[in-house]
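[job 0412] stage=fold_complex status=start
inputs:
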Amino acid sequence: MSSEPGIWLAAFLTLAIYSFLYKDNPVYRFAESLLIGVSVGFLLVVAFDSTILPKALEPLGKSFGDILNGGAKSILGFIWVLIPVALGLLMFARFVRGWAWMSRIALALYIGFGAGASIPANMQSFILSQIKASLMPFLSIDTVWGAINAVMVIVGLVSTLFYFFFSKAHTGNFGRVAKLGTYFLMVFFGATFGYTVMARISLLIGRLTFLMRDWLGLIT
Amino acid sequence: MAMLVQFFVPSKLSRTAYNEITNWAQIIYAFALIVGVFGLLKYHSEKVARRNNGWVYNLITIASLAIMAVLGFAYGRGDSSPFMWAFNYIQAPMQASVFSLLSFFVASAAYRGFTARNMEAVLLLLSAVFIMFGIASIGNAIPIFSDIANWILLNPSMTARRGIYIGIGLGTIATALRVILGVERTYLGKE
Amino acid sequence: MDFWLKVRHIDRRIIFLLMALGVAVPLVMRIGLPVRVTRDVSSVFNYIENLKEGDILLFSYDHDTGTLPEMVPMSTALLRHAFSKNLKIIGMALRAEGNAIGRQAFKRVGDEFGKVEGSDYVFLGYRPEMTATILGLGTSVERVFPRDDRGVSVSDIPLMQNVHNYGDIALVVSISDDDTPVYWINYGNARYQVKVAPAITAVMATTFFPFLNSGQAVGMIAGLKGAAEYEKLINKEEMASRGMDAQSIAHLVVIGFIIVGNMAYFATRKRGQG
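[job 0412] stage=fold_complex status=done
writing structure:
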């Protein structure tokens, strides 16, 4: 059994979380509240220390120092560094009634950035590369089984896309193809569920290993 | 628009604009995280002030957030700092435990909800069972199950996912164009 | 009360207990089931194995503490492989918690191999906003990370003297518990042709098979099983391999629940019950 206070605290908190399996109780709710507070506090420190300080405040301080030493050119440099900081600070305006609209300026720039960057990326990565990969197997078919798989991939891809086309009612032949797409999707969801079970069990293995090995010393 | 144009026009001006915009996006995002923290504090503070049901738990959240922030800013983030001690022995174990709770609920859901009611459910069930059996070491001991699982993953399952990706790609491009052209403004909130 | 009706409406806490036993008992009593290495994991291994001494890898810790039991064995095995081949490693994080996890992993495994921070590896720190970070690294690493996580200026770090952008990086390994590797593929690989290998939690495995098939990802390490396969490849079977017995038995328990649940469903449905 461990004699380290940190291990005992971690074990207590682990069991506090697991107490929820029996029923909701104050110990679990205490642990849950503690987790939220600690996690957000962690994020606050790391976000400030890692990004705001070196990329915003320090360059701002440095360029302000340049103004005191230099001339007009330094002022331009300071303004250029000030712009993103000002936009970031504007986001706090959402907490002030009547001024909340100012936070939209920074939000608009950020959303616009994401929209512009996503178009070529999605076109290349999600559409062109995937269509190419679906057709390429036809150039190198050397077995019957390979041919069956290649045809099945195309049939599955087209029928799945038919399913997601909601502008037309899924009736008649269109509906039949969409139904086939549904079957492919069900196979995908089943596979995802299988992997999800694996993932969650792995996490349980990790916690039980901690409790049985690090805390109680039952396993080596 | 600048991000889209510069992809096709790699001039010095467009590269400079690209570099500055990516830099600004990181800074704005970091401030947005801080705004989120303040939003959380505001929410919990109001609950404490109004003495809502369970306000003690809101107070615990605020107190633990404040303590963690003070530890981080006052003592730094070094490996042997109190901040990292709290991370290693409070945050990490609890978060891992919360996620591991899901394994129990997945088992319960599999027992109660995973029934072969129709053709779709049968396909979902069979796929899940073959994958669970095939990817685990017990399936590796019987290679045929491992091969079946691999075939499912690399063919029908992969195909459906590919169809989803193409759909996502088309949808994202359409939405992005609507945002750039000003047609889509819901991200700005209420007018 | 009818037997099958009782089975159908069994208290879920019994299910929880059986699940816990299904995992705990094999942890104590080893069975020693085999681990078969899959093509996806061996692709990543072979890619790193074929790199030359001094080549540079970028490890991005894009996960939080909720998935530590899966991610730590994976990242440890990868670091051990890379350090054993005297490759240089740059660490970074796109998640705040990943920053602490990655830094600790680098220190722990680096000390194991006698590696020196600054010369053999460097941990640059956390950056929010994935898209901007991934795109920014394509033009200038120093612009995105002017300092490393210790606060040392990147221009003063020996390892970083010859690292300017993706052109100097042989492989990006995104150790993630969500779809962050998709961003690496979309923005890093699609635009800058940097090689990407997702090392992910098993939940996300099915997400990446299309990218493996299209060659947009070098390979994939998924979940604790993927970590166990990698441990087998580097001949250091440890945390992940130990858990494979428990993994298998727990899977059988869940399959058993599904079978019994269906039996109870059909038995009670026929009688118009449940």
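[job 0412] summary: Chain C has a mean pLDDT of 91.
[job 0412] exit 0
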